[in-house]
Design a protein that fits this description.
This protein is an alpha/beta fold. The chain folds into three domains: about 1-40, no CATH class; about 45-235, Rossmann fold, CATH 3.40.50; about 235-305, no CATH class. The chain is about 45% helix and about 10% strand. The chain has helices at about 1-10, 30-35, 55-60, 85-115, 140, 150-155, 160-165, 170-195, 235-245, 250-260, 270-280, 285-305, and strands spanning about 45-50, 65-70, 80-85, 120-125, 135, 135-140, 215-220, 230. Strand 7 (about 215-220) and strand 8 (about 230) form a beta hairpin. The longest helix is centred in the N-terminal third of the chain and has 28 residues, at about 85-115.
Length: about 300
């Protein structure tokens, strides 16, 4: 059993070790099986993602961002980002990858749960990205609303951290703290009642996500769109169409972005969608060769570490 679990949990290509659905501790059909199992009662849930999740990981990719020695008051750090090398490609890479993240961890899960009569699901997207410029690099473009940035707002003492302070302007710090107070009001109301809409508040009511009315809340500050209710849901086809029609990148970059986002462990798309995209948008792209080069590069990086 232990050897079987180790084998099935091992990443395929790249990715993190996966939980093993042993049927005792973890549902035999994994988290999706647990969420749809009528024998397991649901509790109210808040689920969501950040608009630019993937930037936290892609910012360290030397194909897109040049890093070098730190300077000025941060000279004690080993290195700092110096330049975004391919701005349009970097934006497209993060838009598609973060969209897939939202689809899989947000809208798909919300749709799955909303089909249950006992569901009470609240979906959000965190959009705040108003960082300043450090080392001549615009952190809004580099990091933005990346993975885990929302935690700074839910645990606001982090906003007073030296490094975070260095990344904010006076204006964006005030904006961040105002949004933090609003977010904590929503989460606090949810902890008290299971409904994330503060009583006697001027804040927008957070509607549940339902099949008939798929709505979510988008969190931004006054420097952006503010806290808004979004009508509608994300589907895979719209993500693929956006990538295929992106005129800011060439076809080679488009196909690299698609492959990079979908070949890793746990990231495969439905076979028909993958086949159609390669046939229509990447007919001359050497997918196998690209994956082989990427795996070799990743392996060399791990050995260097």
């Amino acid at each position: 059993m232990l050897l079987d679990a180790e084998s099935k949990a091992r990443p395929i290509g790249v990715g993190m070790t996966r939980a093993f659905p042993d049927g005792t501790v973890i549902h035999s059909e994994g988290i999706l099986g647990a969420l749809t199992d009528p024998n397991l009662p649901l509790v109210p849930l808040i689920i969501g993602t950040n608009r630019e999740e993937n930037k936290l990981f892609n910012m360290r990719n030397n194909d897109y961002v040049r890093w070098g020695p730190a300077s000025s008051v941060l000279s004690f750090l080993p290195d700092l980002p110096q330049e975004i090398l391919k701005s349009d490609a970097y934006a497209a890479l993060n838009q598609f990858g973060s969209g897939l993240w939202k689809l899989r961890a947000g809208d798909d899960i919300a749709r799955l749960l909303a089909n249950r009569e006992d569901a009470s699901v609240y979906l959000y997207r965190f959009d705040w990205n108003h960082f300043g410029v450090v080392n001549d690099v615009d952190l809004k473009e580099l990091i933005g609303a990346a993975h885990a940035v929302e935690l700074l707002f839910l645990f606001p003492k982090a906003l007073d951290n030296l490094f975070v302070q260095y990344a904010l302007t006076d204006e964006s710090e005030d904006d961040a703290k105002a949004l933090s107070a609003s977010m904590r009001a929503y989460w606090g109301a949810f902890a008290h009642s299971g409904v994330p809409s503060p009583v006697d508040s001027s804040l927008a009511e957070w509607p549940p996500f339902t099949i008939d009315a798929p709505r979510s809340l988008q969190f931004d500050g006054a420097l952006g769109a503010g806290i808004t209710i979004h009508e509608g849901e994300l589907v895979l086809q719209s993500l693929l169409e956006d990538l295929a029609s992106n005129e800011a990148i060439d076809d080679g970059t488009r196909c690299e972005i698609f492959t990079r986002a979908t070949f890793g462990d746990g990231n495969a798309l439905p076979e028909q969608a993958t086949t159609t995209f390669y046939r229509t948008a990447c007919s001359e792209f050497d997918r196998s060769g690209y994956i082989e080069r990427e795996l070799s590069r990743l392996s060399q990086g791990e050995q260097a570490d």
